[in-house]
C-alpha cells in the first residue's frame, strides 16, 4: 500500500463493544436478568472445550438465578460502561472515531422480554448514550441482539426455537427504531447469527439439556431469527426510510488441508454452510445446498406459509461480519492435530502462527473473505469485528507497549486496502474491542483486545481506571490519515 490513502472518503473508522460484555449495571434501573448474566467465570486453560461454560445446564442456570450478586458472574458488572459511558466516549472521540458499534441490552428495554410496554429508564439510558455520541459527531452502529436476551424467554419459551419469540423481538425492534429514529442510522439485527448453530445458548437462548434433537433445534432457532430479522428490516424502512439495516456473520473462511479434490470439496462445503446465513439474509432464500444438508442430517425445519416471501421481500442493505482467523477443512480431519481456539478450533495450518488462544493469524484471509463475499453478493461490506486478544503487561509506569496488537491491526488494515483496490465496496472497520471488556467466550478480563486498558482482573478486582495503550496513538493516526499511514 502506498502512502497515498486508497480508502474512500467517508470510510467509517471506529471500534466496537457489546452491552453484555461492557455495560454492567445488571440490576440498575429496572433491567431484567439476561442469558449472559448466567455465565460464570471459570479459571480454565483448555480453550478447546468451553461448551459447558458458554452453554450452562438448567441446574447451573437455576443456581445462577439464585445468586443475587454479581460476584463470579463478570458479565453482570462488565467494565461499568453503564456508569462511565461519557468518559469512554470522550476517549473514542480522542481517537477520532467516525462510528462506534455498540449493542442494546434487550432486558434493559423489556426486562422479561414479553411485556407489552418497555422500560422507560432503559430507553432514556440509550438516549443519553446516543446524545453523547452525537456531541462528538460519532455515528452509532447498533446491534439489536448481541449474545444477549432476557433469561425469561429462554426459561419459559425455550429461546429462539419457539416461534412466539419472533413477535416479541419485532416489538422490541419497533420500539428501538421508533424511539431512536433520527439518532441511529445503521442497525444490525443479530450478532454473528451463525453462532446459534455453534453455541445455541449463546446465540439463541437454547438450554441444551432440554433438547432431544439439538442440531434440529438450533436450525429451527436460526430460521426464526431469519424471519425476525426480515420483519425488523421491514419495520425499519417503514419507520425511518433513512436507516440502513445489515446482517452480521462470524466469517469462518475454510481452506482445504491439501490440494486433494476431497479436501477441496470439504472446504467448499464448510464455506457454503457459513455463507448459508448471508444467503438467506441478502439473497432472500436458503441456498440449494441446504435441502440436501437438512435431509442427510435429519433436520426437519418447520416453515410457516409466508416465510419464504418474508425472506425474499425484506433483505438487508449491507453485510457486516467479524473476522479473526481462518480455518482448515479436510475430508478426514482425524488425520490432523487441532488448534485450541474455542469457537474457532480447527485443523492446524502449518503456514500460519497462532495466538495465545489458538487462533490462526491470517491477515490475507481477510482480503480473501472480502473478495469472496463481494463477488457473491455485490452489496457493501463492513468489518465490524477484528482484533487481537492477548495478555497485556503494564510497565512500572503503567504504560503498555502492545506492538503485537499494532502489527495485527496494521496487517489486517493493509489487506482491507488491497481488497478496496480489488474493487470491493467496504463501508468501514471497527476494531474489536476498542476498550478492554469481559471476554464473550471465557468471561475473563485477561484476554484483552482493547486499545484502552481497564484496570480490572479476572475476579473483578481493580480500580476500573482507563489508560491508553501504545496502540491507541497508532490507531488515532490511522484514522486521522484515512488509512494512509500504517507504519
TrEMBL record:
Residues the record marks as active site: 385
Family: Belongs to the glycosyl hydrolase 1 family.
A Pfam cross-reference name: Glyco_hydro_1
GO molecular function: beta-glucosidase activity
Coiled-coil spans in chain: none
GO cellular component: cytosol
Domain of life, source organism: Bacteria
Signal peptide: none
Transmembrane segments: none
Keywords (A to Z) from UniProt: Glycosidase, Hydrolase
Protein name: Amygdalase
Gene name of the record: ascB
GO biological process, one term: carbohydrate catabolic process
